Each structure stands twice: as structure tokens, then as C-alpha cells.
Amino acid sequence: TTVSAKPHEVRHDWVLIDASDLVLGRLATELAHRLRGKHKPEFTPHVDTGDYIVVVNAEKIRVTGNKASQKFYYRHSGRPGNLHAVRLDDQLRDNPERVIEAAVKGMLPKNPLGRA
After folding, report:
1. What is the pTM of this model?
2. Which residues, other chains included, contact 71 with Cβ-Cβ below 8 Å and sequence gap of 6+?
3. pLDDT per residue over 30-87, tens digit each?
4. Which of 21, 27, 43, 61 has the most CB atoms around its CB within 10 Å?
5. Displacement of CA 96 from its chain's centroid (Å)
């Protein structure tokens, strides 16, 4: 029979991942997969069955092609004319963790489970 995990029965593990020389997108898919808990046999779509993840060496990730100079991250303050654009290589230099967070966030569901 199919087992449906209950929130109080779920065991969250801690996972340490070294991001050195890993491609950003491939790393992000693995992180999103583990955060959702899809690698566990007791995965249940409406329950947070994922693990806790710590990523080290975020500044040493790789990107393919010309993304380092052509990919931009945008943020807006809400004021007219205040759209800020930051190139990927500048973001990696200043805040490398934000690059991975943004990539993983786009792969998580857009509901309370994705924000957990």
C-alpha cells in the first residue's frame, strides 16, 4: 500500500554539499530535489519531507557558456526608475550564496511548501 508521510513522522537529515567546480544549474536541481524530499521513499507531495542542506564553497561554482558576463539578476525597490541589474560574475564575487538561492528558489513549488 502507499504510505502517506505525516508531518510529525518525517525525519529531516543534514546534508553538507561542496559546490567546488559544480555547474550552477545541475547543483540547483540536486538541491531542490533534496529540499523537497523526492529522494526519499516516503515522499509525500503535500508534506515537507526534505532535508536541511549546507552548501560550502559557493563562490567556486561554474557556469557554462557566456553566462558569467551575460546573465543579469534584477531587483526593484518599488520606486519609479529603480530597477537594479547585477551581472552574474559580480554577484558571484560579492554574494555567491544569493546566486545559488535564486537558482534553487526558481525550482521549488510556488506555494507554502516552497517557502518552508
Report:
1. 0.91
2. 63, 87, 88
3. 999 999 999 999 999 999 999 999 999 999 999 999 999 999 999 999 999 999 999 9
4. 61
5. 12
